[in-house]
Amino acid sequence: MDIRHVRRLSVGAVYSVSVLETVAGLPVHPLIVHAAVVLVPLAAIGAVLMAASVRFSKRFGVVVSITAVVGAVASMLARISGGTLGLKVEASQEHMDLGHQMPIASIALAVLTVVVWLFDRGIPGNRRRPWWLVLLVVLLAVTAVVATYLTVMTGHSGAESVWLGR
Q: Is the residue at 4 inside a domain?
């Protein structure tokens, strides 16, 4: 395992972080990316089902929330490891731009999923969601679609960077 200490400039602030670059000689970025590519869309499907049904949200909300949080962490790790890999190999500007946007969408998905699940738990079975929670649920569904779109587009542009350049 190769661990490097990386110093970056981000929004005027300097920070340093230890980054795991390789595992068994392979770059860690493609390994982590696969977790994000699976978990974020899976959480998005669950989030849309939660938006459609309070009953589903109460029953499976904890699983969807955990999936969304782990997917968000995976997308953040993919972004960090991609930045480190980008110092060694060239990637398209489109992939780098999408790679910066995707973690934001996946974090928003995770936060909204957890919030909706927590509020849905308190709704009795014979009552509807209040109007403000309905708006939050609509925002959750839209965020799920955006997070899935960004995941697909980021993965596609990354695959093109690797495979079309050969």
A: no
Rounded percentage of the chain residues whose pLDDT exceeds 90: 60
- Residue 88's pLDDT is what? 79
Domain of 114? 27-163
How many domains, the chain? 1
pTM summary value: 0.84
Contacts with 36 (C-beta within 8 Å, 6 or more apart), sequence order: 71, 74, 75, 77, 78, 102, 106, 151
Residue 50 within a domain: yes
With the C-alpha atoms ordered 105, 111, 117, 120, is the resulting torsion angle positive or negative?
Answer: negative
CA distances from 6 to 9, 14, 92 (A): 10, 10, 21
